[in-house]
Amino acid sequence: MLKQDVVRVIKRRFHLPKLSETWRNAPKEKAECVVIGAGIVGLAVARELSLKGKEVLVLDSAPTFGTATSSRNSEVIHAGIYYPSNSLKARFCVRGRKLLYHYCSQRGIPHNQIGKLIVATGTSEIPKLNQLFNRGIQNGVENLRMLDASEAIKMEPELHCVKALLSPASGILDSHSLMLSLVGEAETNGATFSYNTAVIGGHLEGNQMVLHVCETKTLTNWDGNTPLQPDLLLMPKIVVNSSGLSAPTLAERFHGLNTAIIPPAYYARGSYFILSNANSTRHPPFKHLIYPVPEEGGLGVHVTLDLDGQLKFGPDVEWIPHVPDTTNFLNKFDYSVSADRVARFYPEIRKYYPNLKDGSLIPGYAGIRPKLHGPGQSACDFLIQGEDIHGVGGLVNLFGIESPGLTSSMAIAEYVPALLLGG
């Protein structure tokens, strides 16, 4: 968008008179609700707020919705097994799974409840598998069942394991179709989407939030140090910071927000490799999702299938040591998949799929996890901050919305409006 277009799309939607020029001579406009970030969670929140009769403006620095984490993941509907009891991840995953299956069924969004096997490939892993089983039961996951090796291999003849945990509630979906549906419903209910539009910071004027907004192309030549001049100062009543990978960076640039409550951000790249065998789509070696016991930073290199039957393995965990603000705001992460990484995949996969042939894996795609913990640190829960934490009325920050963020999206979208509007 041109600079004047960024202002025009908001004026056209909200029919507001031009206010007097203030801070840095940028025009100033009002809005009711602003959702920053058009990923799966931001879209679900925008839809929910629009269904509640709110005027919603969704801003994203990308040319369209869902270009970062939401389109670079395993597309798995998780059951809710892995997460500590009563954590936000556990609660939102279990609730979100039910909402997601219902939503997809009602709207014809492609999905398949194919089930998952979490496998112990050595006796030393059995205690951890038992812990996952007990945790899943505590979290309210239905129909979990422990299988001995013969039962699991009867279900999946190519599998090697000594014991397995069956999760029938797990599945897969078409995330793009889901996001397209959420965008359509939000727009039908009056929401406005402004792409190529970056929120680069903000400040408080009394109790009023002021967002600093500019064109994405303004950032492309930014050196990361020179103060950015906003094209627009936007004054909303409600702000949901759902900007994913850049959420902590954006919060740090909101003057007046207590920086002590903003968590440190960590980033982990996960690469996927695709099974290239000519018959793998027609006759995939597995019919269920196959997961090893979890590893540090992730759930291990696992088997997922897409809705066309294509088998993929991943993700691994590759910590990214330093991420400049420009990378965050413009999503300029390195998403390339190095063919050299495949050497790490073969031994991990062959622990449960010993018949994997040399040369059968080809590079697929990569995604970045927005983490709140670094290497060697304990995993963190989702962090959702409202006024009770940061003291700014009408602001909700969503931090660390990694897996199971897709599964949890509709449950988070229930929670955030309740936090903002009550009830």
Description of the molecule:
This protein is an alpha/beta fold and 423 residues long. The protein has helices spanning 3-14, 40-51, 88-107, 126-139, 149-155, 175-188, 216-219, 247-252, 325-330, 342-350, 387-390, 405-421; strands at residues 28-36, 56-59, 76-77, 111-112, 116-120, 145-148, 163-167, 171-173, 192-194, 197-205, 208-215, 232-241, 254-255, 266-275, 289-292, 302-305, 311-314, 318-320, 361-371, 383-385, 395-399. The strands form four sheets. Strands 1, 2, 9, 10, 11, 12, 13, 20 and 21 form a nine-stranded mixed β-sheet that branches. The protein is globular. The two termini are 38 Å apart. Residues 10-22 have low confidence and may be disordered.
Amino-to-carboxy terminus distance: 38 Å
**Low-pLDDT ranges:** 10-22
Q: Sheet bearing the most strands, described?
A: 9 strands, mixed
Quickly give the structural class: alpha/beta
**Helix content range of the residues, please?**
25-40%
* Strand residues, percent: 25-35%
Instruction: State Rg.
Output: 22 Å
Question: How would the global form be characterised?
Answer: globular
The count of β-strands is 21
Could you report the average pLDDT, rounded to the nearest whole number?
Answer: 91
Tally the helices: what do you get? 12
